[in-house]
Design goal:
By secondary structure, this protein is of the alpha+beta class. The chain is built from four helices and six strands; from the N terminus they run H-H-E-E-H-E-E-E-E-H. Strands 1, 2, 3, 4, 5 and 6 form a six-stranded antiparallel beta sheet that branches. It starts with a helix and ends with a helix.
């Protein structure tokens, strides 16, 4: 009985370790995940956050300054560049701490007629159905960081 319990626990532990390693090394396909937020089709699952149009963030700073802030924010979060450049259209990969599940965060910076910058953002999970609000919280954190910059 005790031996069967040990084997079950060891098997479960092995599966968790395998999953943690597999998800951490699994590549993200830029052709699939480097998507302009304004052109994104919302997934059928609730594991995303999309802020475009009237929900986009408009900042009273020029595009170059906001792009510098985007690069700093991504670096401070430990996000990995998947494709693009912070000066206009960029996609970063975030990974969950425990198992390394990958999420993609794409954002565009567009100049406004008033000299400011419009930030549109699309954050989504690669796997799963629900993200327990992780992507919405990430977008809120990005918006707050960009608003508080300078």
């Amino acid at each position: 009985m005790l031996f069967k319990l040990f084997i079950s626990v060891a098997t479960l532990f092995g599966i968790v370790i395998f999953a943690a390693v597999a998800f951490r090394v699994m590549p993200m396909d830029a052709a699939r995940y480097h998507i302009r937020p304004a052109l994104a089709v919302p997934p059928s699952t609730p594991n995303f956050a999309l802020m475009v149009g009237d929900e986009a963030l408009v900042l009273p700073r020029n595009l170059a300054d906001v792009a510098a802030d985007v690069a700093l924010k991504a670096a401070s979060d430990g996000a990995v560049l998947l494709a693009g450049q912070p000066q206009g259209f960029v996609t970063y990969v975030y990974r969950s701490r425990l198992l390394g599940f990958p999420d993609a965060l794409s954002l565009t910076l567009d100049p406004t007629d008033e000299g400011g910058t419009r930030v549109q953002i699309f954050s989504r999970s690669r796997f799963g159905y629900s993200d327990l609000g992780v992507n919405a919280a990430r977008v809120a954190d990005w918006f707050a960081a960009l608003q508080d910059a300078r």
